[in-house]
Design goal:
heterodimer, A: alpha/beta, Rossmann fold, Luciferase, domain 3, GMP Synthetase, Chain A, domain 3, 3 domains, 5-stranded mixed β-sheet, 5-stranded antiparallel β-sheet, B: mainly alpha, Non-ribosomal Peptide Synthetase Peptidyl Carrier Protein, Chain A, elongated, phosphopantetheine binding (chain A), D-alanine--poly(Phosphoribitol) ligase (chain A), AMP-dep_synth/lig_dom (chain A)
Chain lengths: 513, 94
């Protein structure tokens, strides 16, 4: 079995050259054509001096060209670094500098702007090329030796210090996950995988490479369609998407804000979600609207690809309050490290530590943070494990459960509080659709807890506070509770806790006492 | 017309925290393509319009033809307000 991502494409291209690899507004692109165009781009990149191990930036819209970019960079023996569209130029410059990106692949009409935005003094970016510029190069694969442990891509995630950090994933890391996923989810050449997540979000790794593994088609979802739930549902139906993978909020918009009736998406056989907790009442509704679709909860920080999975049982038991994150992937070992540094037993809480083939090589150019994140867990003193910062517990059946973030643990009035616990308490109120709790530093109390609630129906904030008082010790009851239309999201669709916190700090200074 | 568009501009800048200035939000600017509204921003805007103007936006009305630009939003809102007015007139006692 191959352990190189671009060999998945080559293998499918050799086996079924005329099968469809990508469907976008430009039509169908076959595996043979995708392979040829990737090889042409690889040769262009090599002619510009790109060498194995280099990082190449990808600043491309969600079309077939994005896949040409991904495979072109890999075929040149380099690693791709997504430079997302629609984010501030200053952040892109930070990434380009941190990753030492010399060459950027961008859409033809964007190339001049990207050159102006990212090039210039102090920037490593020297060349900006468009995929189409490679058309004159031969379409055969360049002979470049790539090893399974070589870097395949670098994904930037927000760091707790405020500077983004580059997660380095090797071919072996990615293929271990992709090969498992393609088998577990029985992906075949008859499948059509929607690509909803942007390339800088690791959910895209499944869409892009599991499709190539199986010779299936990838269908990138244009952002203009993704924003309108009813248009998106039509898109999923008309393009006959069979596999969907996104954060729960996006899946939920697709099924419950689109005017969908049960059975309207008969081709959709699989709905995978990850990145956040899917509130159980919303999941129940989604499962009713997609009666023949199998649902899976996948879990894993970017640093581990996906490390656990949980097939959602149908029907979902009445007493299910929160979904488990499930069982580890084959070849992945988990350990929960308790506060006093020993392996947590069944039913005890600890920080999840992950070892195995899917775990990253480290943070690019940041040995101290790598050493801090990758260090032995108490059950295996010799082998480094990624410390996730997520608190988990294992039940008697072996399933793992996510409890909250370690770093959302705060102290208020001397008490230790997990903000996840405040959120879970709020979520048990019938009028609460979604909520988030943040802690605002306070000289007098250590922290003050603030909560943001998206209500399902009109409800007074005072009633929700009263509910919290009825289920939580008083020190855990939010000091300020605000109802909002929606929670702010990061570019990867996760709840933007940083922004909530900033909002609350501003109003705390204005209104405090 | 000015009122709705102005109100939406203000909402985008003040409530959604968009970084640019309101004057950059021209009437025909495609709000989704330009990344000014994403799916959740769009739903926040819908809720805001419902609450501040007392209109009901059906999930099926959340399409680019209605909500793609400030101009289409303005036209959509005007239509919904007109509908509400005529319904009110029809149900009013003679």
């Amino acid at each position: 079995m191959t352990e190189l991502l671009h060999h998945l494409l080559r293998r499918s291209s050799a086996r079924a050259p005329h099968a469809t690899a990508v469907i976008d507004d430009g039509g169908h692109m076959t595996y043979a054509e995708l392979d040829r165009r990737a090889n042409q781009l690889a040769r262009l990149l090599l002619s510009l001096g790109v060498r194995p191990g280099d990082r190449v930036g990808l600043h491309l819209p969600r079309t077939a060209d994005a896949l040409v970019g991904v495979y072109g960079v890999l075929a040149a023996g380099a690693a791709y670094v997504p430079l997302p569209l629609g984010v501030p130029v200053s952040r892109l410059r930070t990434i380009a500098t941190d990753a030492g990106i010399r060459v950027v692949v961008a859409a033809r009409e964007e190339a001049d702007r990207v050159r102006a935005d990212l090039g210039g003094p102090g920037s490593p970016v020297a060349e900006v090329v468009a995929p189409h510029e490679a058309a004159e190069w031969p379409g055969t694969a360049p002979e470049i030796a790539v090893q399974p442990d070589d870097l395949a891509y670098v994904l930037y995630t927000s760091g707790s210090t405020g500077n983004p950090k580059g997660v380095m994933i090797s071919h072996r890391n990615a293929v271990s996950f992709v090969a498992w996923a393609a088998r577990e989810f029985e992906v075949t050449e008859a499948d059509r995988l929607a690509n909803h997540a942007p390339l800088h979000f690791d959910l895209s790794v499944f869409d892009v490479f599991a499709a190539a593994w199986a010779g299936a088609a990838v269908v990138p979802v244009p952002t203009t369609i993704a924003a309108f739930p009813s248009v998106l549902a039509e898109f999923v139906r008309d393009r006959r998407i069979t596999v969907w993978y996104s954060v729960p909020s996006a899946l939920n918009l697709l099924v419950s804000r689109s005017g969908l009736n049960a059975g309207d998406l008969p081709d959709l056989r699989l709905a995978l979600f990850a990145g956040e907790v899917y509130p159980v009442p919303l999941l129940r509704r989604a499962m009713e609207l997609l009666p023949d679709t199998r649902f899976y909860n996948l879990y894993g920080p970017t640093e581990t690809n996906v490390c656990t999975y949980y097939p959602v049982p149908r029907p979902l038991p009445e007493d299910c309050a929160a979904l488990p994150i499930g069982l580890p992937l084959p070849g992945v070992e988990l350990c929960a490290e308790s506060d006093d540094g020993r392996p947590a037993g069944v039913g005890e809480t600890g920080e999840l530590c992950v070892r195995g083939a899917t775990v990253m090589r480290g943070y690019l150019g940041d040995a101290p943070r790598t050493a801090q994140a990758l260090r032995p867990a108490p059950d295996q003193p010799d082998i480094p494990a990624y410390h996730t910062g997520d608190l988990v517990t294992q039940d008697a059946e072996g399933h793992w459960h996510f409890l909250g973030r370690r770093d959302s643990q705060i102290k208020t009035r001397g008490y230790r509080v997990e903000l996840g616990e405040v959120e879970r308490a709020l979520a048990t109120h019938p009028a609460v659709l979604e909520c988030a709790a943040v802690a605002v530093p306070d000289d007098e109390f250590g922290h003050l807890i603030a909560a943001f609630v998206v209500p399902r129906e009109e409800v007074a904030a005072a009633r929700l506070t009263a509910h919290c008082r009825s289920v939580l010790p008083s020190y855990m009851v939010p000091w300020r509770l605000r109802t909002v239309a929606a929670l702010p999201r990061t570019t990867t669709d996760k709840i933007d806790y940083r922004r909530l916190k900033a909002d609350m700090e501003v109003s705390a200074h204005a209104q405090h006492r | 017309m000015r009122n709705t568009a102005e109100q939406v501009r203000k909402f985008i800048v003040e409530d959604l925290g968009w970084g640019g200035s309101p004057s950059e939000l021209t009437d025909n600017l495609p709000l989704i393509e330009k990344g000014i509204l994403d799916s959740l921003g769009l739903l926040s805007l819908v809720t805001h319009l419902e609450n501040s103007l007392g209109i009901q936006v059906d999930d099926r009305d959340i399409v680019p033809e209605n909500l793609g630009t400030l101009r289409t939003i303005d036209q959509y809102v005007a239509r919904k307000l007109e509908e509400a007015r005529s319904q009110k007139a029809a149900s009013a006692p003679m």
